[in-house]
Amino acid sequence: MAGLKTASGEAIDGSFELRVEVEQGPPAPPRALALRVTGDLHVGGLMLLIVDTVGVQRDWSDHALWWAQRRQWLLRPGRTLDALGVGADAALRFAPQHRPLRLRLPNRRRLRLRLSFAQPVSRAVAHACRLLGSWDLRCLRGESGREGERRETNSSGGELGPA
Fold first, then answer.
1. pTM as predicted
2. Residue 158: its pLDDT value, please?
3. Domains of the chain (ranges plus CATH)?
4. How many CB atoms lie within 10 A of CB 82?
5. Please, are residues 12 and 4 in contact by the beta-carbon 8 Å criterion?
6. Would you list the DSSP string of 89-123?
7. How far apart are CA 139 and CA 43, in angstroms?
8. Of 16, 2, 10, nearest to 88 (Cα)?
Protein backbone atom coordinates (compact mmCIF):
# COMPACT_ATOMS: atom_id res chain seq x y z
CA MET A 1 0.00 0.00 0.00
CA ALA A 2 1.55 3.24 -1.10
CA GLY A 3 0.74 6.36 0.84
CA LEU A 4 2.13 9.42 2.53
CA LYS A 5 5.23 8.96 4.66
CA THR A 6 7.01 11.04 7.26
CA ALA A 7 10.69 11.93 7.04
CA SER A 8 11.51 8.83 9.12
CA GLY A 9 9.64 6.60 6.65
CA GLU A 10 6.54 5.87 8.76
CA ALA A 11 3.21 5.76 6.97
CA ILE A 12 0.63 8.44 7.82
CA ASP A 13 -2.23 7.06 5.75
CA GLY A 14 -3.83 5.13 8.61
CA SER A 15 -2.07 1.89 7.82
CA PHE A 16 -0.01 -0.12 10.27
CA GLU A 17 2.34 -3.06 10.19
CA LEU A 18 0.79 -6.30 11.37
CA ARG A 19 2.92 -9.27 12.42
CA VAL A 20 1.59 -12.65 11.31
CA GLU A 21 3.20 -16.04 11.87
CA VAL A 22 2.25 -18.63 9.23
CA GLU A 23 2.25 -22.37 9.97
CA GLN A 24 2.84 -24.19 6.69
CA GLY A 25 3.10 -27.73 8.02
CA PRO A 26 5.22 -29.96 10.25
CA PRO A 27 8.35 -30.17 8.09
CA ALA A 28 8.62 -26.40 7.67
CA PRO A 29 9.13 -24.04 10.63
CA PRO A 30 6.60 -21.20 11.09
CA ARG A 31 7.29 -18.21 8.86
CA ALA A 32 7.03 -14.66 10.19
CA LEU A 33 5.45 -12.00 7.98
CA ALA A 34 5.12 -8.25 8.43
CA LEU A 35 2.17 -6.94 6.41
CA ARG A 36 1.13 -3.31 5.94
CA VAL A 37 -2.66 -3.18 6.40
CA THR A 38 -5.40 -0.69 7.25
CA GLY A 39 -8.10 -1.07 9.87
CA ASP A 40 -10.88 -1.31 7.27
CA LEU A 41 -9.43 -4.54 5.86
CA HIS A 42 -11.65 -7.52 6.63
CA VAL A 43 -10.39 -10.84 8.03
CA GLY A 44 -11.03 -12.70 4.76
CA GLY A 45 -9.01 -10.10 2.86
CA LEU A 46 -6.18 -10.44 5.37
CA MET A 47 -6.16 -14.21 4.88
CA LEU A 48 -6.00 -13.74 1.08
CA LEU A 49 -3.14 -11.27 1.52
CA ILE A 50 -1.27 -13.80 3.69
CA VAL A 51 -1.73 -16.61 1.15
CA ASP A 52 -0.60 -14.33 -1.71
CA THR A 53 2.45 -13.17 0.26
CA VAL A 54 3.49 -16.72 1.20
CA GLY A 55 3.18 -17.83 -2.43
CA VAL A 56 2.94 -21.55 -1.66
CA GLN A 57 0.32 -23.43 -3.69
CA ARG A 58 -1.58 -25.69 -1.28
CA ASP A 59 -4.98 -26.12 0.34
CA TRP A 60 -5.31 -23.30 2.90
CA SER A 61 -9.01 -23.95 3.62
CA ASP A 62 -8.40 -25.32 7.14
CA HIS A 63 -6.30 -22.32 8.20
CA ALA A 64 -7.66 -19.45 10.29
CA LEU A 65 -6.23 -16.56 12.28
CA TRP A 66 -5.46 -17.13 15.98
CA TRP A 67 -5.03 -14.05 18.17
CA ALA A 68 -2.90 -15.22 21.10
CA GLN A 69 -3.22 -12.09 23.27
CA ARG A 70 -7.01 -12.41 23.37
CA ARG A 71 -7.00 -16.20 23.07
CA GLN A 72 -9.59 -16.25 20.30
CA TRP A 73 -9.93 -17.35 16.70
CA LEU A 74 -10.88 -14.72 14.14
CA LEU A 75 -13.43 -16.85 12.30
CA ARG A 76 -15.78 -14.30 10.75
CA PRO A 77 -14.26 -13.30 7.41
CA GLY A 78 -16.49 -10.25 7.00
CA ARG A 79 -15.42 -8.48 10.21
CA THR A 80 -12.92 -5.65 9.85
CA LEU A 81 -9.74 -5.39 11.86
CA ASP A 82 -10.99 -2.16 13.48
CA ALA A 83 -14.24 -3.84 14.56
CA LEU A 84 -12.27 -6.66 16.19
CA GLY A 85 -9.78 -4.31 17.83
CA VAL A 86 -6.77 -5.65 15.94
CA GLY A 87 -3.99 -3.07 15.89
CA ALA A 88 -0.28 -2.83 15.29
CA ASP A 89 0.48 -4.46 18.64
CA ALA A 90 -1.43 -7.65 17.74
CA ALA A 91 0.54 -10.79 16.92
CA LEU A 92 -1.59 -13.14 14.84
CA ARG A 93 -0.93 -16.73 13.86
CA PHE A 94 -2.28 -18.21 10.59
CA ALA A 95 -2.65 -21.84 11.63
CA PRO A 96 -4.78 -24.92 10.92
CA GLN A 97 -7.95 -25.17 12.99
CA HIS A 98 -7.99 -28.97 13.09
CA ARG A 99 -5.11 -30.60 14.91
CA PRO A 100 -4.33 -34.03 16.29
CA LEU A 101 -5.14 -34.68 19.93
CA ARG A 102 -3.64 -37.58 21.87
CA LEU A 103 -6.11 -38.98 24.38
CA ARG A 104 -5.28 -41.56 27.05
CA LEU A 105 -8.24 -43.65 28.12
CA PRO A 106 -8.71 -45.22 31.58
CA ASN A 107 -7.63 -48.62 30.20
CA ARG A 108 -4.27 -47.03 29.28
CA ARG A 109 -4.98 -47.09 25.54
CA ARG A 110 -3.88 -44.02 23.65
CA LEU A 111 -5.96 -42.65 20.82
CA ARG A 112 -5.12 -39.97 18.32
CA LEU A 113 -8.11 -37.87 17.25
CA ARG A 114 -8.30 -34.92 14.90
CA LEU A 115 -10.37 -32.17 16.54
CA SER A 116 -11.19 -28.56 15.80
CA PHE A 117 -9.39 -26.24 18.18
CA ALA A 118 -11.48 -23.31 16.95
CA GLN A 119 -14.63 -24.59 18.67
CA PRO A 120 -15.54 -24.16 22.33
CA VAL A 121 -14.13 -26.91 24.56
CA SER A 122 -17.55 -28.40 25.34
CA ARG A 123 -18.32 -28.82 21.64
CA ALA A 124 -14.90 -30.38 20.97
CA VAL A 125 -15.42 -32.87 23.83
CA ALA A 126 -18.88 -33.75 22.50
CA HIS A 127 -17.36 -34.33 19.05
CA ALA A 128 -14.69 -36.59 20.58
CA CYS A 129 -17.43 -38.59 22.35
CA ARG A 130 -19.28 -39.04 19.04
CA LEU A 131 -16.07 -40.22 17.35
CA LEU A 132 -15.37 -42.76 20.09
CA GLY A 133 -18.89 -44.15 20.14
CA SER A 134 -19.28 -46.24 23.29
CA TRP A 135 -16.53 -44.57 25.34
CA ASP A 136 -17.82 -42.35 28.12
CA LEU A 137 -15.87 -39.07 28.51
CA ARG A 138 -18.18 -37.18 30.84
CA CYS A 139 -16.76 -35.22 33.72
CA LEU A 140 -16.43 -37.09 36.99
CA ARG A 141 -18.41 -35.93 40.02
CA GLY A 142 -17.41 -35.99 43.62
CA GLU A 143 -18.52 -38.69 46.08
CA SER A 144 -20.99 -36.37 47.85
CA GLY A 145 -23.75 -36.91 45.30
CA ARG A 146 -25.24 -34.95 42.48
CA GLU A 147 -23.90 -31.52 41.71
CA GLY A 148 -26.20 -28.71 42.70
CA GLU A 149 -28.13 -30.91 45.13
CA ARG A 150 -28.49 -29.41 48.57
CA ARG A 151 -30.78 -30.05 51.46
CA GLU A 152 -32.58 -27.34 53.32
CA THR A 153 -34.13 -27.47 56.76
CA ASN A 154 -37.41 -25.98 57.84
CA SER A 155 -37.85 -23.93 61.01
CA SER A 156 -38.33 -27.07 63.15
CA GLY A 157 -35.06 -28.57 61.93
CA GLY A 158 -36.55 -31.20 59.61
CA GLU A 159 -35.23 -31.69 56.10
CA LEU A 160 -37.21 -30.35 53.17
CA GLY A 161 -35.42 -32.35 50.45
CA PRO A 162 -33.45 -31.28 47.41
CA ALA A 163 -33.86 -27.64 46.45
1. 0.69
2. 46
3. 15-96 (3.10.20.90), 100-132 (no CATH)
4. 14
5. yes
6. T-EEEEEESEEEEEEE-TTS-EEEEEEETTS-HHH
7. 36
8. 16
